[in-house]
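Q: What does the predicted 3D structure of Polysaccharide pyruvyl transferase family protein look like?
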Amino acid sequence: MALIYVYSWKPKSSINFGDEIGPMVVEALCRKIGLDLEIVPTVATKKSKLLAVGSVIHEANDGDVVWGVGVNSKHSRKLAKGTDIMFNAVRGPLTRSILLNDGFDCPEIYGDPGLLFPMLFDKEIRACRGRLERAAEALGTTMPETLVIPNLNDDRFLPQLAQPKPDKSIMVLRPNLNPITIAAYISAAKYVISSSLHGLVFADVYRKSIVRMISQYEPEFKYTDYYEGTGRSVPMAYPTVEAALDGDFVHALEWNPEPLIRAFPLFKEEMIDRLKLNFFKLQIGSYYSVSDLGIENTPFTAGWSHPTDGVVWSISDWVDLDFFIKGGVQPNSSLYVNLGALTVSSKPAVCIRVVHNGKAVDTFFVSRKKGVHPFRISLDDFIGESSVSIRLKIENTVRPADHGLGNDVRDIGVYVQGFIVEGDRTLDLKEEQADPAPLNVLATLPESERTVTFKLETVQENRGWTNPNFEGIPKYLWAKKVVSLRFDRNFLATLDNLTLFLSKVADNVQVDTISVEIDGNPLDAEFVKKNGSQYIRINLEDFVHHENESDVCSLEINFGSDAPPLDVFGSTTLPRQRFAAQVRKIGATLSEKKADSAPLNVLATLPESERTVTFKLETVQENRGWTNPNFEDIPKYLWAKKVVSLRFDRNFLATLDNLTLFLSKVADNVQVDTISVEIDGNPLDAEFVKKNGSQYIRINLEEFVRHESESDVCSLEINFGSDASPLDVFGSTTLPRQRFAAQVRKIGATLRD
């Protein structure tokens, strides 16, 4: 079965029902005409796709097909002349006029495909309406006579719109419901007041009495485009619900859907050939051996050889992996790939960089001497998406011919024997979604930055450890039969688990002999010893620090048995003592759910690099004063207005030494003496450095203390003192008509010792 991408814009959280319609309409039309196609909603813009519904023409690229969408007058990106885009229909004549002026061919076929939705989903809408009417009857009420449907941005930024109305016959219908539910409510109502374009579209189809309400955030362009596309003038719009209740009704829809339906691209075989993608369909938890794959049925697309002798080789500096997961990528899923490399080269390892949205998000090294090893690639950047495209940069490649290995002059990097995608089976999504506040900043960090490794020389000072050969930082430690680890109790309460990675274990140490306690209380611990891999994972999810306990606790591990050094390590150079195991690393995973970040004294045992964290910019973007017009998902950088805010969990902020904003560009009129920083109105000491092309603001938080009487969340405000137009700051006129003070490329923090 071939896949067809259909573009569907997604807001930062939840959904906007109007942007969900496109893929649903396309899939329903395919079912009606018997097309065996897998329709995949996507926010990706690189692959060929169909754009249907929405003000999203600016997202079109080479190879795309447009059917019924319109121009977004808020968006500055224009389509490059000569771009290979097929236009089958557009929303209205204003959009067509812009496309003709830009040199594109566009037929005079108008209409929003959302107009077809009630017809295509009539059965589902009727069933939903029946359920709603029965629920209303059970509550002793009736379905609302009048609906108020705000545009997504009106709903987000004008909370008064969502307040219950004194008149119980009026209901505010929020746009983050699914389209079936919205349509069911509209079908049962008598009057519709809407600033949502697709609220107006659905109400048109059901021939309701409609009054248009002014959107405080959306320009008139798309409304005029839609109404003129259906043969009407744009109707009067009213500024408030109260004014709209006395307003004039919109003229009834008189529109023939046949031209729009006939223009549906997938009626034509050549359009299907243009858009279809043959993705490898992957089942989570199933291991795939390259020896079992055919030449055509493979996730190894650009930059790979054909499968040969049970492996596939990278033959380019850039390679792609593309696959499809039914139901989408789940949180904490990872791709594990068994990789090896040619043994010939002066470079001991092949470097692989994982690139997403033009940015290297991970790096690992494949040794030339260790054979095949599994490597993990996080899929966190694809959560919720069904189709996954991973791009890898391969460095330290080898040309076999240069080493006397035949005539092959291709750039050979690594070979793959097999792969598997595994999800996190322990993640309780319902629990996590039910308690999103107060903000735990650890949840905004990439998972890799929630994993810390302790200095072994710190461990060595505890009871039961010895390290006779290494005076400085040891390569590994020897554990006696019983060992202890002393922790700050507050810190231990922020961990999901603690893991001891073992190099060697005495043969008489068995799974059932090991036990772990904290202050005499047993803990759940898993001891795994298989396939040369050995570790002890101690579950700390249920560990709680009670106020009456001391700050320091002792975690005791009893291996149950031990043996002489010769038996354990094959060595007689160790002291005449008995040992249970050899430990190469001790690590821990910080908990998203529990961390209220009480004083983390144990951070002093971490390497300094692991006390530095970087925040995801998309989290910052939701705060006041930030805008990011060009990047909908993970932005490369953010634009800061004159005054910006950052909201933090106050407990977490109390664990920081400093917070630093790394700036790409700054308006010339922003000077060292103009900037100020406050928390809840209290000034903070901040250093603004602007020299030698490097610019940053470092905010000193050493004196910041969280008092018990204060709320959990605090607001940190940065006032740049000045701002300038985009042309002056960034040399660009493609940004919105706003003024900006700076461009921020990264925000980081150093955790306090």
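A (community wiki): The structure tokens above were generated from the sequence. The radius of gyration is 30 Å. Confidence is low (pLDDT under 50) at residues 424-449, 468-473, 593-610, 629-634.
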